[in-house]
Specification:
The structure holds two protein chains of two kinds. Chain A is an all-alpha fold. Chain A has 14 helices and no strands. Chain B is built from 13 helices and two strands; from the N terminus they run αββαααααααααααα. A two-stranded antiparallel sheet of chain B has the order 1-2. By secondary structure, chain B is mainly alpha-helical. The chains are: A mainly alpha, B mainly alpha.
Chain lengths: 311, 317
């Protein structure tokens, strides 16, 4: 039952995080001092760790604002006198008649469309497994659960063989179709539906003569929104970050997502040093929207992820 | 699965609604499959069929007649021939051993770091927890490929400011890309990318701990360290197990980081990780059947490790 409890408690407000430790009763001076010391110590540790996570991003901002000569001639953590950020960005965008924007659009297509459809499919299937009792229910659930544990890259090679027989290799479909399925999403949706979709409400809708599929769309989908946000974000990031599948499937650079595209630029830096600026500029341009998205979206990123852990 | 499914087959309450009830069994029998079919169709295409194909391929011998197979190709059942070839390949076995070493060091370090950060951020002593949480989670949004490109620039001598800084401070010339250090340079990239994500899962579970437990502990005079050890750690065990299992699977799948770093680190060969090995076998040697056997072996190792970890931790409790 703790799964259901988790799902319901996913949106509990912070109990004590973030409040200042200065609420002690007057007269407890030693305790207050000790607590302030602890705050300084803990915050100090957190700052040092934050440096570790942020330094590479700071470096790429610095590097993207330098000319190729300055990149090697000046200190890596300091800005050069010659501020070339806007030249570099313009170069990234216009190089090879705007292929960078094409890659970006491809990534948005793969990740956006893929995650949207995957979330809808997982919601429908999870809702069905939760709401109805039917033969084969446990078999389906067990089968899909096994899919969570299968390494994604283990299926990519045979998928390539399958798709090459179907003539789908090197098309948008070859990356899009495998992105439409999220076993983890189904798992999450089912557990969330178990905990939140009210049976008597479903029953009442039925008695009013509402069709089963309509009940799902009007009632089920709406109730499951918090879980759906989690599933969508999870799938969005995993498609956006995927490298192995497009690498195996795609050979034409017009179809590349941003990850594959930037790697082709990076691999040319050995021979053509100007690709250093293209690569760092391209990395900066594609990291910024993602970093902002992560910072904005991380508060939605809860109430759901731990449900999967309950045994 | 501990959640209890709710039955839809309620007993009749009211005779007047019989006409509705008569229609219901048919509708409730068809509806679940209508809702399931789209998902199952895609699942079949992108999970079940490829896995079956990989297993089938791994037991097949393909013979090409003529110099380029132009006189026809025959497939025969090969028993465990491909598995024998895969397991006799010293480099493939070495790559699995390398990932075990990697996992034994990197996974505990990352999970411990994630746990400590989660506990610190959820303690009353932390200032600006929202900012730190966002900063730590941010790398998760950066694809492994871009993270590797970023870090590879920080590893390459001549470009890396880290090497310069360490050199000017200590006089030591660090080499992040030598055959002895490059595995840990990869571990650093993986840790950098996923620590914040694991931390967030742990925080989600920490937030689910009822506040009465904390109050009771404080009444008993327990300090922050004692609360962490006796209340928080035991109660976040499910989250720790989930993140560990996902990390084990992720370790065996390692591909993008070593493949990209290989361009600047000669110490990384084409069979450095199991996945890199399977990729090379399939696309450089065009030997799909042995590659299929390797893919199956990787999946089996991932399964065995995940399940034995779960068994081990379950027995201990």
């Amino acid at each position: 039952m703790s799964a259901a409890a988790d799902a319901v408690q996913g949106d509990r407000p912070d109990v004590d995080a973030g409040t200042d430790a200065g609420t002690a009763s007057p007269g407890a001076g030693a305790a207050t001092r000790r607590r302030r010391g602890r705050t300084i110590l803990v915050t100090g540790v957190l700052v040092v760790v934050a440096l570790y996570f942020l330094v590479p991003v700071y470096w790429v901002v610095v590097a993207a604002s330098k000319t190729t000569d300055d990149l090697f001639g000046t200190h890596g953590f300091l800005f050069a006198e010659n501020f070339a950020l806007f030249d570099n960005v313009a170069q990234v965008i216009t190089h090879d008649s705007g292929i960078f924007l094409r890659w970006l659009a491809n990534s948005v297509l793969y990740a956006g469309v893929g995650a949207l459809i995957a979330t809808y499919l997982a919601a429908a299937a999870g809702y069905a497994l939760s709401t109805y009792v039917f033969r084969g229910r446990n078999l389906v659930f067990g089968l899909v659960l096994g899919g969570v544990l299968v390494p994604g890259t283990a299926t990519a090679l045979p998928l390539f063989l399958l798709f090459s027989q179907l003539g789908l290799v090197n098309t948008y479909w070859s990356v899009l179709i495998p992105s439409l399925v999220s076993p983890f999403g189904l798992f999450l949706c089912r557990i969330y539906a178990d905990a939140t979709v009210d049976r008597s409400l479903v029953e009442a809708a039925r008695l009013d003569g509402v069709g089963e599929i309509r009940i799902f769309h009007v009632l089920g989908l709406r109730i499951m929104v918090p879980a759906l946000v989690t599933v969508f974000l999870f799938q969005l990031v995993s498609i956006w970050n995927n490298y192995f599948l497009p690498l195996v499937m795609l050979t034409e650079d017009q179809l590349f997502p941003i990850t594959l595209g930037l790697n082709t630029w990076r691999s040319q830096t050995d021979r053509l040093p100007e690709f250093y600026e293209l690569t760092t500029g391209g990395v900066l341009l594609s990291v910024i929207p993602l970093a902002i998205a992560m910072i904005v979206l991380q508060r939605f990123w809860r109430g759901g992820l731990t449900e999967g852990a309950v045994k | 699965m501990s959640t209890t499914p709710n039955s839809v087959q309620h007993p009749a309450r009211d005779g007047a609604r019989r006409s509705v009830r008569r229609r219901r069994p048919a509708a409730t029998a068809v509806a679940p499959w209508l809702l399931l079919t789209p998902f199952l169709l895609v699942f079949l295409i992108s999970f079940v069929l490829p896995i079956l194909m990989a297993i089938g391929q791994s037991f097949t011998r393909v013979e090409r007649r003529g110099l380029f197979g132009e006189e026809g190709v025959t497939s025969t059942f090969a028993w465990f021939e491909n598995y024998r070839l895969a397991l006799e390949d010293g480099s493939f076995l070495a790559s699995i051993g390398r990932m075990l070493l990697f996992g034994v060091v990197q996974v505990p370090v990352m999970i411990a770091l994630a746990t400590v950060l989660a506990l610190l951020l959820e303690s009353a002593a932390a200032r600006w927890p929202a900012f730190f949480r966002a900063a730590y989670f941010m790398p998760y949004g950066i694809p492994g490929v871009l993270a590797t490109i970023l870090w590879s620039f920080l590893y390459v001598p001549g470009l890396s400011p880290i090497i310069d800084v360490v050199h000017s401070l200590t006089g030591v010339e660090v080499d992040f890309l030598s055959s002895r250090t490059v595995l840990w340079s990869i571990a650093n990239i993986v840790t950098w990318t996923y620590t914040g994500y694991n931390m967030l899962i742990i925080i989600a579970q920490l937030k689910a701990i009822p506040s009465e437990l904390y109050e009771a502990a404080r009444v008993d005079g327990a300090g922050p360290a004692r609360i962490a050890l006796t209340i928080q750690l035991p109660l976040i065990r499910p989250a720790l197990m989930l993140t560990t299992v996902f990390s084990i699977i992720g370790t065996l799948q390692l591909f993008a980081e070593p493949q990209l770093l290989a361009q600047v680190a000669p110490a990384i060969d084409s069979q450095y990780t199991p996945n890199l090995s399977a990729y090379t076998t399939a696309f450089a040697y065009n030997d799909y059947t042995v590659a299929a056997a390797q893919a199956v072996l990787i999946a089996v190792v991932a399964f065995v490790l995940s399940f034995s970890f779960l068994r081990l931790t379950n027995r201990r409790s």
